[in-house]
Amino acid sequence: MDTTGADYTMNTNNLHPLSVVYNAHAMSSEGTVIRTKLLPPRPHRRVLARPRLTGRLLEALDYRLTVLHAGAGYGKSTALAALAGEGYPLIWYHLDAEDADPTTFLLHLLHAFRPRCPDAVQLPLALLEEQGGQPSWTAPVDALVDGLTEYLGRSHLLVVDDAHLLNSSLETLRILDRLIGRAPTFLHTILSTRYPLRLPSLIAWRARGEVLEIRQDELAFTPDEIASLFSQQYGLSLSPSEVSLLAERTEGWPIALQLVWQMLHSRGAPTVHEALRRIAGPTESLFPYLAQEVLRRQLPDVREFLLSTAVLREMTPSLCDRLRGTEDSARMLGYLMENGLFVVDLGEGHVRYHHLFREFLYQQLSPQEARQAHLRAAPCFAERREETEAVPHLLAAGAFEEAAAILDRLGREMVQAGRLDTLASWIGTLPPEVLEAHPALLVYLGDIARLRSQFNAALGWYRQAEERYRLQNDLRGVGQALRGQARVYLDTVNPAQAEHILQEALRLADGQEDRESRARLLELLAENRLNLGRPEEAEQLRAQARALREEGPGEAELAIRVLLRTGRLNEARRLLEEQAERERREPVLRPRAHRETLLLLSLILSFQGEAEPACCCAVEGTQRGQALRSPFVTAVGYMRQGHAWLIRSDPQGYAQACRCYQEAIAIGETLAVPRLKVEAFWGLCRAHGFQGELDAAADAAQQGIAIAQQAGDEWITAAMAAGLTDHRWTVLELLMYKVPPAVPHKAGG
Fold first, then answer.
1. Which of 192, 403, 587, 713 has the greatest number of CB atoms lying within 10 Å of its CB?
2. Sequence-ordered alpha helix ranges (H) in 253-354
3. 3-state class of 419 per DSSP?
4. 388 in Cβ contact with 30 (< 8 Å)
5. Closest C-alpha to 662, from 683, 646, 647, 644
6. Which helix (H) or strand (E) holds 192?
7. Which residues lie across from 345 on neighbouring strands?
8. Is 39 helix (H, G, I), strand (E, B) or coil?
């Protein structure tokens, strides 16, 4: 939402009882699809058909991508909407500021295709809904491309209106870039924009002649079009000199031409010469002057309506009535539409102001008037169960406490729905003192950082939340903050740190009625006991979790890792192969750190001496980590590739394995996760040892053992120590071997 000119100072004099209204409502888990964004605007009766421009736009059918680049008020949306009558199916998506959020954008994009090609979007929507709090868009986009290729059938035009709003999010631009680049040849994309777009592949497409670019001068009205507009649509016949003057003075800017007609229509000026004579300066000064004249000449009730509704992004009669406390909004909106007062019909009873006109109206409000208008708007949306629409109004009004109260309730669902950018932006607007009073928001910031592999930042947020919850004596909140910290240590395989945190969280959960949270804690603790090399205790904890609820997510992963660490490799392999096959049919779209199915399977295959399938699984797992933008998973993939190279009959195996291990160590350094490097050092120990380079092997082993002992991982410590003492041990002996906490260096490897 545009809040230009808003004063963010809190005013409590006329505050509504917002907290009472908001407590009754919650956000849907999937997020809201705003249907009016997916409908082209309906043409106003005074819109002039422009065959010249429509024909130019239809040239888009010969190109992969068309970019329509012009400033505000040049009629981009109107010109594109006219394509709906040209016999080619039109898929429409009009962007607002929040559509820069990757998940919001992808959700609406899929629903834009749904009416035309429902079969093509079933799988992408399912994939998007399954991904949980860690958004990954590669699989849904690729599934959409496959579906369109199979089901679309003939030429379609995809219009993304106001695409410049995506420039603030490189990730969302990548989604659009991937779709355009991989789309079937019969899907032609048109992007309207005010500013140059930062699409990664745009330069390459231009070089290949796949981009049609239509610029501002082609959207401007020609003198002949100006004459036709005034005579056919406005009922005013202009003399050649008046047409020439308008063309020269407005440079064919459509919205300026409309404003001149408004002045003539309302008798603000008797002639075109008189209307333009008063204006000096560049063309861009036309709009504020003419808009002010149009506003000044409206009846008082029309002026009141225009100014009081300027804070709304979209309008319906009922919403405007609720905002203004009246019952005449349907009549007022009809008047604005009938008289061409810069209102765009979005269909289904929704309208909006032209962007330039809305910005102008908003600028006419004093800071106090704008704040009060936002405060009136916020409860209107809350009552309609649209709390996410209320938040921007509260932030613009400086009602930070009320906004924080909503985010307290909606934040968890926004994290689970993958709306991380939007949530982070809203929380980032809050002053520090409000943030400290709502430690749940600190937990959400921790979740966002953790899901982006920013582990140190995540720990910082979780620890701040823990401190604030303890000051509030909120034990349940303390438990949430501790669980967040423990998940960081589990993701980074640091069991010594995770153990005491999980025990403390479990102690705080004792006696609480939240059985699900306690069961999840037991599962986390079971996973940590596996990392500590105690599989029997892990089984007992899993049994306790099952007693609290039925088996849920995470159970299969834990069972497989128990089998691995107790040497039951054939059983673990069978389960992993079955799970890998299921995931190929129904992909998991969130990174799972060291728990990735293909990477666990690769490790077992390496233990069993099957080099080629181990390598294939490792490479595919590495590519998955790169696709999910998870450096942690990518590093594990390189380590598993290294293991596979070591057992291949290839003279380059040693060098390739060392390269993979060093790549994993380098990634571990960038993530500041020392535990991630342990397995790579183990691999280097074995690689150097197999080559007879015993000093290098001992050095790698000692580095890995030092990190593993500090993290409390006895299993990997034992494996590395065994590698130092005798390279002839069997895999099962390595798996079962236990060592004391300190392992002295043994010369000779």
1. 403
2. 254-265, 272-277, 286-296, 300-308, 317-324, 329-338
3. coil
4. no
5. 683
6. strand 187-193
7. 42, 351
8. coil
SS3 at position 28: coil
- Contact at 8 Å (CB) between 720 and 677? no
CB 427 within 8 A of CB 412: no
**Token pair of 499, please?**
């153990």
Q: What ranges in 161-239 are assigned the alpha helix state H?
A: 170-182, 202-207, 216-219, 223-228
Q: Which amino acid is at 382?
A: A
Q: Contacts for 692-695 with beta carbons within 8 Å, 24 or more apart?
A: 694/748, 694/749
* Residue type, position 42, single letter: R
Going from the C-alpha of 686 to that of each of 308, 311, 620, 717, 727, the distances in angstroms are 74, 66, 23, 14, 8
Q: Point out the domain boundary residue: 196, 219, 242.
A: 219
CATH code, 486: 1.25.40.10
Identity of the residue numbered 102: P
Rg of the chain (C-alpha set): 31
661 within domain boundaries: no
Q: At what angle do helices 300-308 and 317-324 cross, to 10 degrees?
A: 100
Is residue 363 domain-resident?
no
CA–CA gap between residue 290 and residue 275 (Å, rounded): 9
Assigned domain for 63 exists? yes
The string of pLDDT tens digits covering residues 456-475 is 999 999 999 999 998 998 88
Relative to beta strand 187-193, strand 65-69 is parallel
Structural domains in the chain (count): 3
3-state helix, strand, coil in the chain (%, to 5): 65, 5, 30
DSSP conformational letter for 43: P
Cα separation, 617 vs 641, in Å, equals 8
User: 555-565 vs 597-607: helix axis angle to the nearest 10?
Assistant: 20
- Domain containing residue 181: CATH number: 3.40.50.300
Q: What is the pLDDT of residue 10?
A: 28
**Whole-angstrom distance, CA of residue 687 vs CA of residue 698:** 11
Distance of CA 216 to the CA centre of its chain: 31
Strands 156-161 and 350-353: unpaired
Partnered with residue 344 across adjacent β-strands are 352
On whether residue 233 sits in a domain, the answer given is: no
> Does an H or E element contain 485, and which?
helix 475-491
Distance between CA atoms of residues 294 and 267, nearest Å: 10
Residue 458 near residue 488, CB atoms below 8 Å: yes
- Which tokens go with 281? 């300066």
Q: At what angle do helices 455-471 and 475-491 cross, to 10 degrees?
A: 160
pLDDT in tens, 300-355: 999 999 999 999 999 999 999 999 999 999 999 998 887 777 788 888 889 998 88
Q: What is the pLDDT of residues 54-108, one digit of tens each?
A: 999 999 999 999 999 988 788 899 999 999 988 899 999 999 988 999 989 999 9
Strand 156-161's sheet: what is its strand order?
A: 90-94, 156-161, 187-193, 65-69, 211-215
Give the Cα-Cα-Cα angle 653, 654, 659 (nearest 5 degrees).
95
Domain around 704: 673-749
From residue 270, how far is each of 33, 253, 291, 299, 349 by CA, in Å? 47, 21, 17, 19, 36
Q: What are phi and psi of 484, to 5 degrees?
A: -60, -45
If we measure between CA atoms, which residue out of 382, 385, 407 comes closest to residue 323?
A: 382
Domain end: 170, 185, 219, which one? 219
